[in-house]
Amino acid sequence: MSTPTDVSPQPRDLRFDLEAHRGTHWMNGDPVGTAVFNALSLTFPDGEKMFMDSVRHYRSRLTGRLAEDVRAFLAQEAIHAREHHALNSLIDRARYPVAEIESRIRRRIAFARSRGPIRMLCATTALEHFTAMMAETHDLMQEKLFGRTAPALERLWRWHSLEETEHKAVAFDVFMEVTRDWPAWRRYMLRVWSMVFISFMFTRNITQYASLLLQADGYAPREARKAVRRFLWGDPGIFRANPRTYFAWYRPGFHPWDIDNRAQMARWQAEFAAETAAAGTPAAGAVSRRAAT
User: Cα dist. 110→46, 49, 50, 265 in Å?
Assistant: First the structure.
């Protein structure tokens, strides 16, 4: 399968009023869930920049629809980084080890960059698969995860999930285009190895970062790790919610849109179209030229 003709990323230049939730356990009042999602959010500003750079490196080799999808991908990711930076600014840096976590994140990203452009692009395709799975999880567990969360914060994560779904195949399509002259086995082995490595590193890192945040809330180190692992793998189990999507990656010939969740995407698109119209905020596509460059 390839990206369906009726799917295209649509940047939405939205801003979220989060100030009232500064220093709170904003996710249902739960310190564990808040720590996990704050850990995820802390990875996004620098992570999104790496995603953008990995795809931007190959822009001169792209034409037609894929070139347009890359432009929209870059705009979406730039706005995501901005809004997650705003969310991250709510975390009390005097209490929580935010600087230490950010330093660890930057070291991981520096290592990914050091591997060269094609490996960085392949890491991006694997991480984009993870963000697409997280979008599915948002839909599967919306009430359980966000049922008692402030509407602005739920909306931020739902918006991010929508746009991650819209562009879930863009980096993958760029990878397939720039490696089209490779033997199929070489391309397959690189993307499988990348997913194995990313799966280990990403899940381990989020566990570590969230545990550090929980320790600042008074949890002993062992209890913090146990609580985070339970949230990630037990109840609600956000990392085990959709194994079909995860393991689909390992099929030869896989494409992200083999997991066809256009119905979910269309529902979210309709919700945001109605919400932005009611609020008088910019429509999809109304983004600055700078964000897409």
Answer: 10, 12, 9, 33
Tokens representing 240 are 């085990």
Q: What is the DSSP string of 102-159?
A: HHHHHHHHHHHHHT-HHHHHHHHHHHHHHHHHHHHHHHHTHHHHHTTS-HHHHHHHHH
- Give yes or no for a contact between 106 and 50, defined as CB atoms under 8 angstroms apart: no
Are 165 and 265 contacting, i.e. CB atoms less than 8 angstroms apart?
Answer: yes
Burial 146-179 (b: 16+ CB within 10 A, else e): beebbeebbbbbbbbbbbbbbbbbbbbbbbbebb
Convert the pLDDT of each residue in 153-201 to its tens digit: 999 999 999 999 999 999 999 999 999 999 999 999 999 999 999 999 9
Whole-number Å distance between alpha carbons of 189 and 21: 45
DSSP string, 51-113: HHHHHHTTGGG--HHHHHHHHHHHHHHHHHHHHHHHHHTTS-TTTS-HHHHHHHHHHHHHHHH
Q: Does the pLDDT of residue 277 top 90, yes or no?
A: no
End-to-end CA distance of the chain: 29
What DSSP character marks residue 254?
-
Judged against a pLDDT cut of 60, whether residue 283 lies above it is answered with: no
Q: CA-to-CA distance for 141 and 147, rounded, in angstroms?
A: 9
Q: Give burial (CB, 10 Å; 0-12/13-18/19+) of 194.
A: buried
